[in-house]
Specification:
AB_hydrolase_fold (chains A, B), hydrolase (chains A, B), homodimer, alpha/beta, 277 residues, 9 helices
C-alpha cells in the first residue's frame, strides 16, 4: 500500500492509499477514516461506503460530512473507488459505462472482464487488506449512494454473514428494469438476463427473506426517481418475504450530497446499533 | 440575479447565484445557505465566509460540513467567489495572483484595477444585494480561511460597525511580511508599502484597539505556518492595545478542509453568541 494523503480530522485520521489489486489486476485507490479511539487493542468496526456514477474514493469523504459522527461513535469508514482506472483499462466515453461506473459486478464480457471485477474486490480483497493493515475488527456494515446504493444492497444481501447492516441513499434498486442497469449489465454481463439477477436487489429480495436490517433514504425531488431508481419496486420485493426494510421518502430532497449530508448521521447511528449488537 | 443551483439540505436551502456586479464590473458567483427558520417575518443573521487561494464559492459549502450547525442555530451563510473571473478579466499563470486570488483588496494598479475591487464588493455591494433579496437581518459576522482569513480579519477590523464578530482558520495574518502577501500587494497596490498597511491585520491591530471579538484556529502541522501565516505576529499585535483575540493552536492539524470541518461548529457557535447579543 502507498499512502497518498493524510490529514488529522475530528481527532482521528483521514488517509488515502493506492494499492496493487490482484482482483482487478491494477492499481486501486481507497480512502479511510480512522477514529481516534481505534487501536490494535481496541479495534473499531468498519462501514464500507460505495459511491455512485462518476465518483472516486474522494466524493464521500469530502462532501458527506460523515466524520464528525463516525468519530463520536467510534466507527471507521472505508470508501473505495468506483472502478479500476488507467490507460490500460477498458473505458467508454459515456459517464455511465467503464471507468467510474463499475456497478459492483464481476464482468464476464470482453473488453471488461479483465479488470472490472468490482464485486469480488469489494466483498473479498478490500476487507482482507483493511483488516490486515488497520486497527479494525471484522464487524462490517455497508452503505452507498445511487449506483453505490445498488452495490451496498446487492453485496449485503448476498453476504449476510459478512455484514451487520445495509443502508442506501437513492439506490438503483432494480437495475435489470432501468436504463442505467440495462446498459451496464448488457455490456459487463452479456445478453443472458438470467445472469443479471444475482446483481439486482429486487430479484434477491423476491427470492428469499433478508436477514440484515436495511435503511434506505430517497428524496422525492430526485430527478432520477421514476426512470432509474424505482424505490417502490424495492418495497414490494422486501414485503414478499417480510424482509426488514425501512424506506423513507424525504420530501424536497434531490440526488446530491446536500441530501446525503443531511441524513448521514442517522445512517451512522443505524449501523452503529447493528455493529455493536 | 440568476439562480444556478438549488438543493434542499438540513431542512433549509442551498442556493447558488450569479449576478452582474457594478463594483467588479462583471459576473460574480456566490453560494447561500438559508436555514428553514428564515422568513421575511423572522429574518436570520448572516455569516460571510471568505475562501482561500484557488477556491470558488463552492469549496466551503461542499467541504466544511457547516450547514448542520447553521441550520440548528438559525444562521444564514454567504460564500462569495475569491475574485472576478472570465476571459475579459486580467489573470496570471500562478495560483496566487489574479483569478482565484483577489486577496480582498481594491486594486489600484494596471491591469488589475479595472475588475479586482474585492474589498468594496465584499463590504458594500454583496451585503446590500443579500439583504435586499433574502430573508436575512443586517446582523453580520465574517469568517474565512487562509487568504480568506486575512480578508475576514481586515474587513472586520476596518468595519466594526458592520459586523458582530470575526473568525478565521489559518489566516495570512501579516501579508506585508510574507511572500504570498508581498507578491499580491506589489501587483495590486504597487510599490508604495504605505498603501499596503490598510490591508494587513497586524498593522490594523497595532494601530488601535479592536472592538470586535476574534477567534482564530491554526493547525500546528500546517505547511504554510512559518513562512506565510505567522500567527504569533497577530497575537503580538492584538496584545498591543488589548484587543480580544483568542488564537488556538490545534495540534496535528494541517491547512485543509479536514481541519476546518473539525472546528467549524465551534466557530458558528462563537458567531451565534455575538450575533444574538
Amino acid at each position: 500500500m502507498k499512502l497518498l494523503n493524510e490529514s488529522k480530522t475530528f481527532g482521528g485520521r483521514y488517509l488515502q492509499y493506492s494499492h496493487q489489486s490482484s482482483t482487478v489486476k491494477g492499481d486501486m485507490r481507497f480512502s479511510v477514516f480512522l477514529p481516534e479511539a481505534a487501536s490494535d487493542k481496541k479495534p473499531v468496526p468498519v462501514l464500507y461506503w460505495l459511491s455512485g456514477l462518476t465518483c472516486t474514493d474522494e466524493n464521500f469523504v469530502q462532501k458527506a460530512g460523515a466524520f464528525r459522527k463516525a468519530a463520536e461513535l467510534g466507527i471507521a469508514i472505508v470508501a473505495p473507488d468506483t472502478s479500476p482506472r488507467g490507460d490500460s483499462v477498458a473505458n467508454d466515453d459515456a459517464y455511465d459505462l467503464g471507468q467510474g461506473a463499475g456497478f459492483y459486478v464481476n464482468a464476464t464480457q470482453a473488453p471488461w472482464a479483465e479488470h472490472f471485477q468490482m464485486y469480488d474486490y469489494i466483498v473479498k480483497e478490500l476487507p482482507k487488506l483493511i483488516e490486515a493493515n488497520f486497527p479494525v475488527s471484522d464487524r462490517r456494515s455497508i452503505a452507498g449512494h445511487s449506483m453505490g446504493g445498488h452495490g451496498a444492497l446487492v453485496i449485503g444481501l448476498r453476504n449476510a454473514e459478512r455484514y451487520c447492516s445495509i443502508s442506501a441513499f437513492s439506490p438503483i434498486t432494480n437495475p435489470i428494469n432501468c436504463p442505467w442497469g440495462q446498459k451496464a449489465f448488457s455490456a459487463y454481463l452479456g445478453e443472458d438476463k438470467q445472469t443479471w439477477k444475482q446483481y439486482d436487489a429486487c430479484e434477491l429480495l423476491s427470492d428469499k427473506h433478508a436477514v440484515l436490517p436495511m435503511l434506505v433514504d430517497q428524496g422525492d425531488a430526485d430527478n432520477f426517481l421514476k426512470e432509474q431508481l424505482k424505490p417502490t419496486n424495492l418495497v414490494r420485493a422486501a414485503n414478499e418475504h417480510g424482509s426488514a426494510l425501512e424506506l423513507r421518502m424525504q420530501p424536497g430532497y434531490d440526488h446530491s450530497y446536500y441530501f446525503i449530508s443531511t441524513f448521514i448521521d442517522q445512517h451512522l447511528a443505524f449501523h452503529h446499533k447493528c455493529l455493536m449488537d
